[in-house]
Amino acid sequence: MTMARDLFPDFGLTQAQRREAVRGHYYEYPGMDGERGEIWCYSNRFSYHPGDEVTLFISSTASTCDIEIVRDGASEEHALSLCGIATSWQETPDQCSVEGCGWQPSHSFRIPADWTSGAYRLTLTAQGRDGQPITSHHLFILCPAVGAKPGRILQIAATGTWTAYNTWGGSNHYQGIAGANRDQYATRISTQRPWCRGFVVLPQDAPRVPVEVSLPPGTVPRYPHMEWAYATGHSKKYASSGWASYDSHFFRWAESAGYGIDLASQHELQFHPELLDGYDCVVFVGHDEYWTWEMRDTVDRFVERGGFAARFAGNFMWQTRLEDDGRAQVCYKYRARAEDPIYQTEDLTRATNSWEAPEIGRPGAMTFGLNSTNGVYAGWGGCSPRGARGFPICRPEHWAFAGTGLFYGDLLGAESHIYGYEVDGLEYEIRYGRPYPTATSGAPAGLEILALGMASSVEENDVLAPEDRFFGDEDGRFIAETLYGEASDENLEKVRYSNGMIVSFRKGEGEVFHAGTCEWVAGLLRSDAMVEKVTHNVLSRALGSSN
Ligand SMILES: [Fe+2]
Predict the structure, then answer these.
(1) How far is the CA of 347 from the centre of ligand 1 (A)?
(2) Which helix H or strand E contains 65, and what residues bound it?
(3) Which of 87, 219, 355, 457 lies 20 to 30 Å from 280, alpha-carbon distance?
(4) What is the pTM of this model?
(5) For 438-485, how does the pLDDT look when each residue is reduced to its tens digit (9 = 90+)?
(6) How many A from CA of 63 to the centre of ligand 1?
(7) Neighbouring residues of the ion ligand 1, judged by CB less than 5 Å
(8) How far apart (Å, rounded) are the C-alpha atoms in residues 125 and 62?
(9) Three-state SS across 252-286?
(10) What is the CA radius of gyration of the chain?
(11) Could you give the CA distance from residue 86 to residue 106 in angstroms, rounded to a whole number?
């Protein structure tokens, strides 16, 4: 008999600290490192086009800094060294997460014509007051030039979700220092602030959200990622979003596997939709939760005209609106019906609510085949911490599984734990052992359900005391209210249990493949041969090639 892996690691934290790590509100702010000093950086945009000028805003306790820039692809390629950049400590407004930091520009440079599309990581180094180095990281995206890109993939980084989870300055779309009592999440957040610690780079041993320890009977589930974050000085949300936890793993894998892959931000979907015209295949990965109406329009048009949208991502939940040329993201979320000023107008289609709010009239399934409100949590905390680690397969004959040897009922990606931590689903019914979308599910015509797992929207279990829960029934009650008009106990029971799926359908001249899970990238990161094979099958079909 093999020994069960040790129970949850404690990272040196006491029980009180562990609780603070999960329930507390801690975040990056100027001055947090005290006497040692600090250096922070952000740029004027998420993404640039060839030939654009990049403007960096730096605040530092040191008077100069060095900046190393590398392209973070299959290998790390040196791009640029900047030495002796003059810096100073810059005042930061208290509500910088909302208003932006408003720092003076510190340095600008033009992107050389020979840099290739991808993610560019900046490492800033200066001298701390104790003589030891102080560092920080920043990242920007270089878009490809507009034009035909036969055989290439365009990956769209989930920058709306990065912004929503960025803890720097105290407020994001989850927790915050907004409101009279400084205890509210922010309904409007700025891109003009540094990324929080762990969004750009992470050590390899940083825990992912899904629980990797085996749990003996009666074990109280814990949240290793938040405990590790608290113990090591990383953002509470490092494992929820960001280049380092999600998007980077797909990009590096694809480039290593020999694909030609380019990178853009979600801003391009809104402000430069023409970029997609040159591609046959657009890819979305990781935790991809926040979209605008216009971004969806661009993807819908791309597919209608014959494009292939491959989404290996979960949690298609919220509509946002961009303001200030994309420098601010608005999402009222749980408070939308009470506070979003759009509810004072006639046209509610742009309400910053869940896509399945009936007043919007555009459920997520219309674009990607699945809804967040039919999915949500799996594999952590009080949501099936012993659940299926892979996707249960129900249509093994589908082209996506060719050459994998998968059988009906097999789990795809169980070894690498690709199922979780947030998944997207649909209402379904079982006929002759196979699931079909129900007539009222809102699924696009002809959609096939290839894999089906269980999920839930409520943390439960008798052993998980209320004070040990992370989100409890908040999300479940919200979904109940959104879909059924009232957050009653009766409606909560209608949404408590849900599912996560892989689906595939044709639309217009094009096609969509959607594996509705945040953790697909874990299969690529952990070299799971079967997950890699399915990914190859999807990309080959999308690119019209045999790989
Ligand atoms: Fe999420």
Answers:
(1) 27
(2) strand 64-72
(3) 355
(4) 0.97
(5) 999 999 999 999 999 999 999 987 778 887 788 889 999 999 999 999
(6) 39
(7) 289, 315, 422
(8) 10
(9) HHHHHCCCEEEEEEHHHHHHCHHHHHHCCEEEEEE
(10) 23
(11) 7
